[in-house]
UniProtKB/TrEMBL annotation:
SUPFAM superfamilies: P-loop containing nucleoside triphosphate hydrolases. Belongs to the DEAD box helicase family. It comes from Sphingobacterium paucimobilis HER1398. Keywords: ATP-binding, Helicase, Hydrolase, Nucleotide-binding. GO terms for cellular component: cytosol. InterPro entries: DbpA/CsdA_RNA-bd_dom, DEAD/DEAH_box_helicase_dom, DEAD/DEAH_RhlB, DEAD_box_RNA_helicase, Helicase_ATP-bd, Helicase_C-like, Nucleotide-bd_a/b_plait_sf, P-loop_NTPase. This is DEAD/DEAH box helicase. The keyword Nucleotide-binding applies. Residues 216-378 form the Helicase C-terminal domain. PROSITE patterns: DEAD_ATP_HELICASE (PS00039), HELICASE_ATP_BIND_1 (PS51192), HELICASE_CTER (PS51194), Q_MOTIF (PS51195).
Length: 611
């Protein structure tokens, strides 16, 4: 007998979920469904995303609602539009063979009239994000008097996103005798308080141990200097040619800049963050789901509720501020019983955070070495060989050209042909990784968290009489140092003699300016645009002359780079609060080589006019 039937799920639903590939209940389903099917209890379930919790509450709901009535009987609140759509689509799939089931997804950023129309036509299940739900309640457009079940999904996320008041207001619109089912990946005090305030003697259950991440996730970290972060990240990606990953950053601007740098370097990457319009976000997500994007660079908030299967790697380009967010991030991989890898790129000072994560998650994080150039090249080569071996040959089509092909290769031995094919792909690659430096910090054990690496310690200061400034353009924008000098002098209308050291990185540059000329630089760059990007100048937070930090243009909210990040919120106990920024791309010694080894089109990027 089908185990879902045994749990008490009706045949129509079992047929529908069998088509979705559900053969046996997941742990949370096995534990929660019997309790929720009684309909008698409030419920608290601690479960990560990806554990099958949508069906854990969705299947019992389908058993208990009266679909001959057309009034809302279940309300599901969740933090994001993506999750809202996902849940409503899942429920519709589960209910495929039940008649008259009407589910509405109510979320912001979409036309409210359509949602109101659906509600007017009659629905039994409302899946909503809190903001839009309140809006609709405020219009008196919905009647919750018949609601029997309220589900709070990803409750911790909803609270993180500031929906506490909204949830209170919405719950007060629902009948007192309803049952409340709360799901959360973590159980911070605030969630506990909601459970206390709104539930009576809830049945509690945990899948795995509290705060424990998915057992199928391998947690790894790389210890590198902050300035080598981007280069190390690229090596990790290059040594995993089949990667399909999400890269987490802490700020919108960081996601944007890393995505831009990656795109310039020829990767299939794009950014997902809150400053994008809904349309832009949908577009990015569609490309990611379709796998035309290999790397999605996202902030924590933007990535909430993303339910994409088969993500191979989660990369913490910057560790999250809140320890809970690490569990959320890593939970994006290893879904539905698959395995996955969660990678953190850290500097020496962040080692204590890893130790803390290990304690909370109850798993050891494996330290990995950033691959050396030749290892990366070998990995890529093997992938190509594999591809060549597995490529489907269309005999009919190719046959007609075969004589010409054979003739063209007549003078070459098999070995020569192999070498040449490989070189087609690899000349750029070999050149890029030729003499690539070792990016690992010495193998010393720094488990005590003490900073023994003088090179990473303390910020670099500007020379006396000079102020060190940050600019969001760098080597990836195809500036040489001379170009950069000209660019600064022309815009600021100052002489080259006023400029001190110029320290060009991958996606940004630090440069020194004589103190008395600093204002001219800010004035000159007030409204300068480079290839559609606003040029941003900031005082580097470690400057001798001005530790306060100033910024013109661009987005300030995220704080600066290079040690200038100012954060009010406490992070992990004892950890260094500064992100350290990401310090530039792999050094590009051969001027103009953009590291474009992935840009196999053979197109030279056009040199852009600079000033
Ligand atoms: P969720 O945690 O509800 O987002 O589910 C994560 C993924 O697991 C989704 O793709 C579900 O379709 C899938 N899933 C849920 N329950 C099962 C099950 N019992 N067997 C196989 N796949 C499942």
């Amino acid at each position: 007998m089908n185990p879902f039937l045994e749990l008490g799920i009706r045949e129509e639903v079992v047929n529908a979920i069998s088509e979705l590939g559900f053969e046996k209940p997941s742990e949370i389903q096995e534990k929660a469904i019997p309790v929720l099917l009684t309909g008698n209890d409030d419920f608290v379930g601690l479960a990560q995303t990806g554990t099958g919790k949508t069906a854990a509450f969705g299947l019992p709901l389908l058993e208990q609602l009266d679909f001959s009535q057309k009034q809302p009987q279940a309300l599901i609140l969740c933090p994001t539009r993506e999750l809202c759509l996902q849940i409503s689509k899942d429920l519709e799939k589960f209910a495929k063979y039940i008649d008259n089931v009407h589910v509405v997804a109510v979320y912001g950023g979409a036309n409210i009239s359509d949602q109101l129309r659906q509600i007017r036509r009659g629905v039994q299940i409302v899946v909503a994000t809190p903001g839009r739900m309140l809006d609709i309640i405020g219009r008196n457009a919905i009647d919750f008097s018949q609601v029997k079940y309220v589900v709070l999904d990803e409750a911790d996320e909803m609270l993180n996103m500031g929906f506490k008041e909204d949830i209170n207001d919405i719950l007060s619109e629902t009948p007192d005798d309803k049952k409340t089912w709360l799901f959360s990946a973590t159980m911070p005090k605030e969630v506990r308080r909601i459970a206390q305030n709104y539930m009576t003697d809830p049945v509690e259950m945990t899948v795995g141990t509290k705060n424990t991440g998915n057992a199928n996730i391998d947690h790894q970290y790389y210890l590198i200097r902050a300035k080598d972060k981007y280069a190390a990240f690229k090596r990790i990606v290059d040594s995993n040619p089949e990667i399909f990953g999400i890269v987490f950053c802490r700020t919108k601007i960081e996601t944007q800049e890393i995505a831009e740098a990656l795109i310039k370097d020829g990767y299939n990457a794009d950014a997902l963050h809150g400053d994008l319009s809904q349309q832009q976000r949908d577009k990015v997500m569609k490309r990611y789901r379709d796998r035309s994007l290999q790397l999605l660079i996202a902030t924590d908030v933007a990535a909430r509720g993303i339910d994409v299967n088969n993500i191979t790697h989660v990369i913490n380009f910057s560790l999250p501020d809140e320890i809970e967010n690490y569990t959320h991030r890593s939970g994006r991989t290893a879904r539905a019983g698959k395995t996955g890898i969660s990678i953190s790129l850290i500097n020496i000072k962040e080692q204590s955070k890893i130790r803390q994560l290990e304690k909370v998650i109850g798993k050891t994080f494996e330290r990995k070495q950033v691959p050396q150039g030749p290892e990366v090249v070998e990995k890529q080569l093997l992938t190509i060989i594999n591809k060549v071996q597995n490529v489907e040959v269309n005999e009919d089509q190719i046959n007609q050209f075969l004589p010409a092909i054979m003739e063209g290769f007549e003078s070459l031995s098999k070995e020569d042909i192999v070498k040449r094919f490989a070189s087609l792909e690899f000349n750029r690659f070999l050149e890029y990784y030729n003499n690539a430096p070792d990016l690992n910090i010495d193998g010393r054990d720094t488990r005590d968290g003490r900073d023994r690496d003088r090179g990473e310690r303390g910020p670099r200061t500007g020379s006396k009489g000079y102020t060190r400034l940050f600019m969001n353009l760098g080597a990836v924008d195809e500036f040489s140092r001379g170009d950069m000098l000209g660019f600064i002098c022309n815009n600021a209308k100052i002489s080259g003699k006023s400029i001190g050291k110029i320290d060009m990185k991958g996606v940004f540059t630090f440069f020194e300016v004589q103190d008395e000329e600093v204002n001219k630089v800010f004035e000159g760059f007030k409204a300068v645009d480079f290839n559609g990007r606003q040029v941003r100048i900031e005082v580097s937070g470690d400057s001798q002359s001005d530790r306060g930090g100033r910024s013109r243009g661009g987005d300030r909210r995220s704080g600066g780079y290079g040690g200038g990040e100012r954060r009010e919120r406490g992070g992990y106990g004892g950890g260094d609060r500064r992100s350290g920024g990401y310090g530039g791309g792999e050094r590009r010694d051969r001027g103009g080589n953009n590291g474009g080894f992935r840009d196999f089109s053979g197109k030279r990027r056009e040199s852009k006019g600079k000033y």
